[in-house]
Prior knowledge:
Helix content is 49%, strand content 19%. By secondary structure, the protein is an alpha/beta fold. It has 2 domains: 6-230, TIM Barrel; 232-272, no CATH class. Strands 1, 2, 3, 4, 5, 6, 9, 10 and 11 form a 9-stranded parallel beta sheet that branches. It has a two-stranded antiparallel ribbon with strand order 7-8. The mean pLDDT is 96. The structure holds 1,3-dihydroxyacetonephosphate. 1,3-dihydroxyacetonephosphate (13P) is lined by residues 23, 47, 84-85, 179-180, 207-210, 229-233. 1,3-dihydroxyacetonephosphate binds next to strand 4, strand 11 and helix 10.
Amino acid sequence: MVVNFIDMLQKAKKEHYAVPHFNINNLEWAKYVLEECNEKNVPVILGVSEGAAKYMGGFDTIYGMVTGLIKDLDIKIPVCLHVDHGQSFDTCKKAIDAGFKSVMIDASKHPLKENIEITKKVVEYAHKRGVSVEAEVGHIGGTEDNITNTSNNATLEDCLEIYNGAEIDALAPALGSVHGIYKGEPNLDFETMKKIDDTLPIPLVLHGGSGIDEEKIQKAISCGISKININTELQQAWTKGVREKLDSDKEVYDPRKVIGAGEKNLKEMVDYKLSIFNTRL
Ligand code: 13P
């Protein structure tokens, strides 16, 4: 069974740790992440971007795959299946109708009023079905914008406005983090993060979690971050293992051996993130 993120994030907020959101790209990634988190006995959020959903066939396929893995692998931990950066009401509805228990509606490219209206529509549909909703304020930039290291930062006032206007369950305020590889040092606005956390009763989300060092991660958690999204570093870890395999074994052709060569690195990266997020059940 997949669950929404409400209980896991409220607990993380209260007890000052972060629940990992790991993006998945295929069957193997979902399997490795589930196995490792189950082994470490920690809850996990599996994030599915629109691009990844399209790549894997669609939300119905992914729901079937993840619920099948939970059953076949006897996964005991809470697993939240979550849309990452859903761009429209229609995307979020499709995922909810397929069985997803959590969505992020990212209407941050629109002016705030429109962002709130779209988010509210998603919240109304989602909450009737027990589905949690994350929203974004400001705009977290990154490779998807073809611009690196730009973040149109959120203000406390904007965060309050979307919270009051749309009854969201978690908020990702843009505060300096970006998706993909950082050029130079990540520059996070911890002061505003803390103010938002002191003002809003909901958990905060840090996107662009790859490439942020342990010290900054700990600081972000102390400033109210309860969910941290990781994609790029898992991709890099997995690809390194596969590349080494292909470089060292010119005879290999079985896709299970090629893809499986990334398992150890990916699981080690998952483990490392769990340790610096202080994640627990
Ligand atoms: P990274 O790819 O930088 O880890 O960011 C992931 C993310 O924020 C997904 O929403």
